[in-house]
Records
---
Amino acid sequence: MGFTRRELLFGLAVLIAAVIVVTGPVSQYLAQSRIAHAVQKGRELNLLLSQYALDNDDTYPIGQGTTALGKSEGIARNLLNDKYASTPDIFVLGKALAYTGTAVDFSDFAANQIDWDFTAATSTTGLPASAPGLLPTLYATGETVSYPAATGTVVDLTLSGNGPFGLKGMVVGYKNNAVIFIPATPIGSQAVAKGFILPAFPGGSYTQIKP
């Protein structure tokens, strides 16, 4: 015997309800998995920066010897050319395009292929290895950062929504090798990454390096 129209509608309603119940946990799992993967990339990249400094006069890369000095892609080229990074995938968090270039020296690695901002001493001088542990050394791109000059200043970064995680939060790696995801805190109509820089940070003059 066939199903009646009422039975079919009831069955469809049950199916839709089941999909709704399952979709929530699955979406949440995928979001958490993506965050965990991004944090792991941040840990690996932070370590590569430290290793580069150990081998290069205690100074982090800044794009030396490339056509992208003082840019995030220049730092990526340094790490790739000098064999610290084994794959360009480490520079992508989900918004940037995957690298498909063919240049042996990665000179075709472009700004839209990296999802990280970095910290440097100046736009042409790499971060010294003596920088304080609470200094953000790398973070998901898309935001504008000002580093406090004096100690005791908290930086709660208002998110623009332009980063890989939009208004949900951001991945931050610090000089002490801690890498975390700071979930956004809603404050009024804004989304804020609270504690991006903590009050124990001693302050100093630093420069944000963007793609």
---
Amino acid sequence: MGVRNYLIEGLSGTGKTTVAEELQLRGYHVVHGDRSLAYIGDPNTGQPMEQPVDLLPEVAAQWRQERWIWPIDQVSSIASDGTNPVTFFCGGSRNFAQFIHLFTRVFVLDVDLPTLVQRLANRAQDEFGRRPEELALIRHLFATKSDIPGQATLIDSSVPVAQVVDTILSHCQPS
């Protein structure tokens, strides 16, 4: 197992990618889960899936979101590589329960709803969360908190990214 592995999760728009980039600028090993690991698949088996073509947009958004997963074997391999003393995995995965035990600590980025909606509105047209049906889904997930790992440390990510990363790092000191 790597010396210390951390998962940084949160809803779309809470700042996972921005935090990942800041951690990299500070010299940390970062895995951009949404860019390099994630795919659409069965959260129980890991088998890749094709989206049914006849889904209404609001159903399709939820269908995709529920099947946004990471390959367990690859996450395990990276987490067990002792090359880097610390690795941060940043991104969302709906099968996190199958590999959460690999992490020293889990952080969930959290913002207030107006900040979240503003961030999503500023995204490019093709980014998740920009379409009305995706925004509706994110609002629902925000209200229910049903899409985030339990037993996590909540981090207010409405403040400047340097402050968010400083807060995360303050929780990552070896005991």
